[in-house]
Amino acid sequence: MSSVVWLIGALAAGAAAFVVAVPAWRNHQARQRRDLNAERYLAWRGRAGERPQDERLTTSDRSRLAVAGALALVAVFCLVGFFTYA
Question: Which of 12, 69, 71, 86 is the 20 to 30 A CA-CA neighbour of 62?
């Protein structure tokens, strides 16, 4: 019974990490694509900036990815518990 609880905990934590991380990563990628398209358009119009902007994660995306990383560590901990007590 104990090993089943560890496995369910690992699956739940892994799924939660996925659910938290994927939207943050997609937002970051969409922002990069949008900025690249705008830069290409401005270059085509002859109004390109002198240097391209450095793409960085927003605070919200960074915190979501940190939470997802913590949940992934919990999932790994639960997997270790599952294989230890199985």
Answer: 12
